[in-house]
What does this fold into?
Amino acid sequence: MTSLVLRPLCFNSLHKKGLLMTSMFFLLSTGAWMSAALVLRSKNPVHSVFYLVLTFLHASGLLVLLGLEFFALLLLLVYIGALAIMFLFVVMLLDIPATELMAHQRGAYPVAGLLFVTLVISLVGLLWQPVETSPLVTPLWPVVQGGPLGLEFPETSWQTAAMSHSALAQLGVALYGVHVDLLLLASLLLLVAMIGAVALTLTRRVHAPLHDVFAQQSVDYQKVVSLVQQSTQAKTFT
It folds into this structure.
């Protein structure tokens, strides 16, 4: 009897918890999308950095909902505590004019739109048909695995790894073992960003004609004035 009474109560509590999690997920996702759009649309670079911090906060909230508290804390400490503050100081030190920023943004909008459309099409394709059964990808697997590179894709049982290792150990195995190529690609992207930051801080040398200061200071100014007066008088007589 008690089990029959407690069963609907447990179901109602789980249902309410699921609705709360779903509503929180959609709320944080909408906030992340809106703040990311404001990063691109803001004309003031300082405001863009603040909107970027807001995007990171929403992303950390999503990670907490997924049960990844370590990654949420890492996102708060690294991206907000270090990178966002560094971006803010760099933007304030460079003091780039708004007109120059708008001139560079005009050419970036078509590229950003093309990348966004490509991402949406790829996501829709993945939801419509998985990669393993796609007729476009399936014929390429023998070519890639048996080609000149000889690439091999190891199959990792993540359920077994989750039962035998901790969360940090799983992260280490995934980063430095299975997906080490993606880690190297991310390091190359960081290298490109570092080179771009150094290129922005370099000042351009202005090519101006050289002046002989000693010759300018040793000029007889009375003689120069008399010559100018003589030339003006000659022009008036002619």
